């Protein structure tokens, strides 16, 4: 006779966990020279952040040294970093933008 915990007849299947692509935090770093208005403009232009929020985030970077400004797929994060770095370089500001796996 079957014991109470006999699993005869129970079909088991390994659950394959759904794969999600890794996400990346894009961060702005503080420096002593980039004008505050330039950073606000960068946040509005490349990250679609409204003016009031952009001012808030810029001030977090200014006070804390860095802040996460968005979380994206690897390809989008790379594009954002390249756009910001290129825009800062063209305007001769030392602003740094980096990405890091979440
Ligand atoms: N610290 C800069 C200043 O006082 C402003 C600044 C903010 C620079 C954020 C970079 O990512 C930055 N002009």
What can you tell me about this protein's structure?
The protein is α+β, with helices and mostly antiparallel strands. The chain is built from three helices and three strands. The chain has a three-stranded antiparallel β-sheet with strand order 2-1-3. Helix 1 packs across helix 2. The longest helix has 17 residues, at 74-90. The N and C termini lie far apart (53 Å). The model has no long low-confidence stretch (mean pLDDT 92). The structure holds L-tyrosinamide. Residues 28-32, 34-36, 39, 58, 61-62, 95 line the site of L-tyrosinamide (TYC).
Blueprint (SSEs and pairs):
Elements: E1 23-29, H1 36-47, H2 51-64, E2 66-73, H3 74-90, E3 96-101
Helix pairs in contact: 1-2
Keywords, separated by commas or semicolons:
single chain; 102 residues; alpha+beta; three-stranded antiparallel sheet; 3 helices; 3 strands; elongated; binds L-tyrosinamide
